[in-house]
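Researcher: Here's the sequence for the chain we discussed earlier.
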Amino acid sequence: MWDWFTAAQTVHAFLLVLAAIGAFRFAIGTRFWFPRYIHYLAAFASVLGLTCLTFIPADAPINQSEWGGLKKGLLVLVFPGLVYFFFVFHGGQRVAYERTHQPEAMLCPYCRSPQAGPGSRCSHCGQTLSR
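Model: Thanks. This is the structure I predict for it:
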């Protein structure tokens, strides 16, 4: 029984790594483009992280360590990192990029297949599209 769980975990980890590679290749291809509102959300998340630092008491373990400054910096950076991670992980970067940088798609009025834009020919039925 546990061998099935181990196999499922292995397949899941492989698919996760494959998806991460695909997302990273897309991000490189778009030169790490993100919509402006994601940067605003990340800036808000950074302010949230800085606010969390103000609530840490003076006798907290993070203040007692010699690596306390690094740990505090990572605590602040975790919040905008989560914003960017979930935006990319849920496919928001690809959708936003395609909506912004691709020509507006329209449906062919004759066969209802998606086409590039007005003035082109439908690859499915051969009709010329007009708007």
